[in-house]
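tl;dr need the bound structure. longer version: we got a ligand (manganese (II) ion) that a collaborator sent over and nobodys looked at where it sits. i said id run it. heres the input, straight from their email, havent touched it
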Amino acid sequence: MYDPKPEHKFSFGLWTVGNPGRDPFGDAVRDTRNPSQLVDLLGEVGAWGVNFHDNDLVPIDASPSERDRIVSDFKKALERNGIVVPMATTNLAYDPVFRDGAFTSNDPEVRAFARQKTMRAMDLGAEVGAKIYVFWGGREGTETDAGKDAIDALKWYREALNYLCEYSMDQGYGYRFALEAKPNEPRGDIYLPTTGSMLGFISTLDHPEMVGLNPETAHEHMAGLNFMHAIAQAIDADKLFHIDLNDQKFGRYDQDFRFGSEMIKQAFYLVQILEDTGYSGSRHFDAHAYRSSDYEDVKAFARGCMRTYLILKEKVEQFKNDSEIQDLIAEARADDGSMDPHLGSYSSEKAKALKAYPFDRSALGKRSKPYERLDQLLIELLLGAR
Ligand code: GCO
Ligand code: MN
Ligand code: MN
């Protein structure tokens, strides 16, 4: 019943199920699997798509012939597992060259190198059919603001994205860019720290129509924000091109937990908004299995992400069909239409009438909303008591 199917569009990054469990305090705990083995693993658990950074697939120092062999093996693995590549991205974080950022490094040669690396990575993504191209500026930031001009950094970032939009069009790749915000980690502070900041930035680009968002649950939670509200704003702006699903306690380090494993209620609202608004993009899990896991447990982790999503999707239906819940929502949203003349768009006549309207403020202040009852019903529904 909760088996993943292609129409659910569940995808994982090579770097997610392939994460060997290295952290700042300890070394890898799982052996490294090659991209084809990871695609086999994803095929086994029933995923629809796989995404990658250029260097998850092709090592940064690979020769052209090694590159071709790796890509050909990868394509065979995709085919034998019936898996597609919806999204690709560039690793602009790992190599020491990016120690001061990529598009926003103070070093112009690094900024140029970042563009070159991204163009090559875009070629690689296009070769395996990716249509979404993600930009996560993990190193685009600072530890000290004493040495970098934050306005220059934004200008450099904008110029790079404008250049790469043109490159995509020039090559006829048909990419749509999806920008991913994060407040910090690995930099002390990362520029454009939230989905809302990214949204503002997009409107300053030369081709805003081709650039949207890749919001991530954990990143908004790290900043103590309501992820569903960020998604609502992205949908409202028609900019939800992609999504990184995982979980995270507020205010902690970048935990990247299995989807729905920490904040079930927030995960419910998220699935609700995605399903109710007909979001048609990938449901991409950017999460890692616990460091204590072996590869059997990694499979359980991947299955768990998808299964929890599907269980929550069923809960969303149940919520919609629960008459007690729906009656309370109707009560909370009651509207007899009497205010219609005073709402909606402006006219000078309407303004005149509204200014003269005799509101009974004290009666209005006595109206209540049944949110305690409603929330308890939601909790009981999520706990399986309804
Ligand atoms: C992180 C990010 C990355 C990006 C990935 C795709 O916190 O490390 O979420 O996993 O999503 O680099 O661009
Ligand atoms: Mn992340
Ligand atoms: Mn991410």
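gonna send this back to them w/ a short note. The mean pLDDT is 98.
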